[in-house]
Design brief:
The chain is α+β, with helices and mostly antiparallel strands. The protein is built from 15 helices and 18 strands.
């Protein structure tokens, strides 16, 4: 009897503790599982972002070097175009004078008119000019410092290499009518021992047995191209987060937007001791072609405080220039911390909901357990069969509780999947963020390798978007980005994927798409954006780079080609498409 009473007490009170304990245990496990997922999501985020930023910096340095190398490769063609354009203009002037006066003036009068009309045509502080000789080598029009030779023959004139340049010019106009020649001369106002290479273009005038020409020193055009390259990088610096700087190996600061007072000066002379040592370390790494980044403390223009900076430098081929750029580690820290807070807030909200439901369910389970236990107690005292019947009811109730717990577990799984989706989504536009997009890109690359399929990619960004933010504020800029995503979505197929890579920069993954179709889609995007009127700011344009994946190509190479194509579209005038 005592044992039965003890059993009855156990049956009466055990559910009041066991069922809530089970609910609390399951809820605790679910909450802990959510935090483990959160920790796993945040693990190594900082290192991954640092690595991605370093790869981006190296890619930008290589792109800038390619730009400068390309600019330098056009020296000869630019030089040819320049001297030919001058001579063609002078030729047109001379022909016009001849045609207008051939029937009314004497030959000597026409010659004098042509010479006086062309004498003022000088360039580069008198270094370049229009000259006229007859085919016997006699000077008809000479530069100011050789004017005493007008009317005299210079047929036997030699350059510093000993070539009879006048005879070569006469032979060129006699055989071809016009042409280019290289020669080497000393230069007025320079060291007489130093020689300078120059290009000449000569052309048969067709009258008076005359020919005319013009010259320019090679290094003059080379300097112009260097200045042009620097101006391009300076313009990029104005719209970029990370600025380029250029120094030469003699210590001269060529480009430095953060310290413009140093430009044109020698850093060995004007920089402080720690800055000179930093500059020397840059040169050492450039000389050894090191792939390492230099870590040091430097003022962050965005915050105005001294922070840790990582900089990569590299020597530009066939020059003594060293180009570099970098980023502040604290910028990455702030981005990681912002993402961490966002995910923690979402996780806390979900955890609070789980706890609230767990408390409510525990109270309900206690109430249900109490009434069930009391009923079991009464019937247990009456009949054994009645106890068995109620035991079956209790079993059914436990099964119901398990179903509810399973249902709640499924809800928690859905919540986890939702949180994971948030971590993979750009919070402003709702499309894939950079990390999610590159994961899809890697998957598409594996499919291409396995099944030998083709795919393409579009990379675009908004032209002069910084002006929108500066003029109207970031709220309007964010609104423009959201509208752009909506308009671009209208241009895409169901199989295409749009991702925001950073700022105003986007990428579109085009599976099973070759370059021709990719260009058509890109053209559609460009037209849709250009023809759309955005609230507050009006019309906007985009510059687009399009690439098709090449078999066995690395992902870094594929992305780099799209980046280069985009920069080419920018350089060539914006609101256009370039194929990489």
């Amino acid at each position: 009897m005592i044992k039965e009473k003890g059993l009855i007490r156990f049956i009466t009170f055990a559910p009041l503790f066991i069922i809530p304990a089970i609910v609390i245990t399951i809820s605790t496990i679910s909450i802990r599982h959510n935090y483990e997922i959160l920790d796993q999501s945040l693990q190594n985020v900082h290192e991954r972002l640092i690595s991605e930023q370093e790869k981006s910096i190296v890619s930008k340095i290589n792109m800038a070097i390619e730009l400068i190398v390309y600019q330098r490769s056009t020296i000869e063609s630019r030089l040819q175009s320049k001297v030919k354009s001058r001579v063609d203009t002078a030729y047109a002037v001379a022909q016009n004078i001849y045609e207008q006066n051939k029937d009314s003036k004497s030959e000597n009068e026409i010659k004098r008119m042509i010479i006086e009309a062309l004498r003022p045509m000088v360039w580069n502080n008198g270094e370049s000019f229009i000259f006229i000789l007859d085919k016997e080598g006699k000077f008809a029009l000479a530069p100011s410092y050789l004017r005493h030779l007008e009317g005299k023959s210079i047929l036997d004139f030699k350059d510093v290499a000993g070539r009879y340049v006048i005879r070569e010019e006469i032979n060129t106009v006699n055989t071809k009518g016009e042409g280019y020649l290289w020669d080497t001369f000393t230069r007025p106002g320079y060291d007489p021992k130093k020689q300078f290479k120059q290009m000449a273009y000569v052309k048969d005038l067709g009258h008076f047995n005359w020919y005319m020409g013009s010259t320019e020193y090679l290094d003059t055009t080379a300097r112009e191209i260097e200045h042009s390259s620097i101006d391009i990088l300076r313009n990029i610096n104005q719209n970029a987060t990370h600025y380029f700087f250029i120094v030469d190996k003699k210590g001269n600061d060529i480009l430095h937007p953060f310290n413009p007072e140093y430009e044109g000066k020698n850093l060995y002379k004007v920089a402080r001791g720690d800055q000179r040592e930093l500059f020397k370390s840059f040169l050492r790494k450039a000389d050894t072609n090191s792939s390492e980044f230099t870590r040091y403390r430097w003022k962050n223009p965005a915050t105005g405080t001294i922070e840790t900076k990582l900089t990569f430098v590299k020597t530009i081929p066939n020059t003594d220039w060293v180009i570099g750029t970098g980023f502040h580690v604290e910028d990455i820290d702030r981005a990681v911390e912002a993402k961490r807070k966002e995910l923690i807030a979402l996780n806390k909200s979900e955890t609070d909901r789980v706890i609230s439901l767990s408390i409510l369910f525990s109270i309900l389970s206690i109430v249900v357990s109490f009434f069930v236990s009391m009923r079991l107690k009464r019937h247990f005292e009456m009949l054994h069969d009645s106890i068995e019947q109620h035991n079956r009811e209790l079993s059914e109730l436990n099964a119901s509780l398990e179903d509810k717990i399973a249902e709640r577990t499924e809800e928690l799984k859905v919540a986890h999947d939702k949180m994971e989706k948030i971590a993979m989504t750009d919070t402003l536009t709702g499309i894939h963020n950079r990390y999610a997009f590159f994961k899809l890109l890697e998957t598409e690359q594996e499919k291409s390798k396995r099944y030998e399929t083709q795919f393409s990619m579009i990379m675009f960004d908004l032209d002069y978007f910084k002006t929108v933010n500066d003029t109207y504020g970031h709220d309007v800029g964010d609104s423009v980005l959201v509208e752009v995503v909506a308009k671009v979505g209208e241009c895409l197929r169901k199989s295409d994927t749009l991702g925001r890579i950073g700022g105003e920069e986007f990428m579109v993954l085009l599976p099973h798409t070759e370059i021709r179709e990719a260009v058509e889609i890109a053209q559609r995007i460009r037209h849709f954006i250009a023809e759309h009127s955005f609230d507050t700011v009006g019309t906007m344009t985009v510059s687009i780079g399009v690439v098709q994946y090449r078999a066995d190509e690395s992902m870094e190479s594929f992305v780099k080609r799209s980046d280069i194509a985009l920069y080419q579209a920018k350089e060539l005038g914006r609101n256009r498409i370039e194929i990489g």
